[in-house]
Design goal:
Length: about 150
């Protein structure tokens, strides 16, 4: 697929090998889904989250605004019990690329008694591969989402 971008020719390079890139991104996102919920692990999350990532979103049921610094999120991941239910909600819903080293993804997962819909911004960083640098989320109680 050709990209008709207004900035084409100004240093923008098309990446027409989407299969490889999507596979690499999906693999990294699996670390996120496992490390944040089904197999809670700070080490697993550090494989995919940049330490300076900022997480912003709305938590249910009140829709309260939450902002979490990356290190606080990563440090709080270990020690949580793995989930026994709700794993069918762990899904990568969409991956979009913008050039060779920039992507966005939408994922859904269960954690902390809520079903989350996350919009993630990723960069392909030298030495780190695809890395989440921004997360925007909305949560809904698991009981409501599962009904």
């Amino acid at each position: 697929m050709q990209i008709d971008a207004p900035f084409a020719g100004y240093g923008y390079v098309e990446d027409n090998d989407m299969t490889v890139a999507h596979s690499e991104i999906a693999e990294q996102l699996q670390h996120y889904l496992k490390g944040a919920s089904s197999e809670p692990s700070e080490a697993t999350l550090r494989k995919v989250f940049h330490p300076s990532t900022v997480l912003k979103g709305l938590r249910a049921p009140e829709g309260a605004y939450a902002e979490i610094e990356g290190e606080a999120f990563l440090g709080g991941a270990g020690g949580k019990p793995p989930l026994a239910a709700g794993l069918e909600y762990h899904k990568i819903l969409r991956i979009d690329k913008a050039g060779k080293d920039v992507a966005a993804a939408t994922v859904m997962f269960v954690g902390g008694g809520q079903v989350y819909m996350d919009h993630l911004s990723l960069l392909k960083l030298e030495g780190s591969g695809w890395t989440i640098v921004q997360k925007t989320f909305a949560g809904q109680p698991f009981e409501v989402a599962a009904a």
